[in-house]
Every structure is written in C-alpha cells, then in structure tokens.
Amino acid sequence: MAYEIPVTQARAELAELINRVVYGGERVVVTRHGKPLVALVSAADLERLEGEQEAAEERVVSSVSAIRSLSSAPGERQRFGIAAEHRQEHHAEHRSEGWAEQREGGDRPPAHGR
Asked: Does pTM surpass 0.70?
C-alpha cells in the first residue's frame, strides 16, 4: 500500500518524501482533492515497471506476428477463391488503419460495398 499525501503537503515535505522512497522502499502517491495525481517510486521500481511493460508489449507483438503467419484453413483459398484473399486483406487493412481506435472513439466502422 502506498503512502498518500496531498500535493500542498508534498511540496513542503519533498525532501522527506524522497528519502522515504529511496531509503525506506515506500511508494508515495500525491493527491489533489483526494484523487491520485502522481506517484513517487524509486528508480529501481521504475526500471522494473518499464521492463515489465516492454516484455508485455513484446508478447503482444509476438502473438500478432504468429497469428498473421498462420495460413488459411486448408482448402479455404481453393473453395472461396478471391473472397478468402479479400477477407485477409480486409482484416490487415483495419489493423493498419487503427480501426479499433476509431470505434473506441465513437466512430462507426466504414461501410463496405455501398
């Protein structure tokens, strides 16, 4: 659990807070109106957190690469011809355009074939 302190008090006690983080191994959350604003963590904690984030991002990239390298089900291209190719291109196009981000922002997906 992190030690919480209002921003006005943190200004006056910054040196002490730094010592608590560096030498006491604590994490300090600075609040404004009772809501978390920033956190003070040791440089070692920050390095560990950034390493974990990079590892997670690498796992995502690796998973996406593995999915892209999978070929269609056997016979799908023979059965569906150009439609199977279009489907793969369509999904790749949406990923590259950030289609998911547009949807989160409230935009509707583009209408195809109209």
From this structure: no
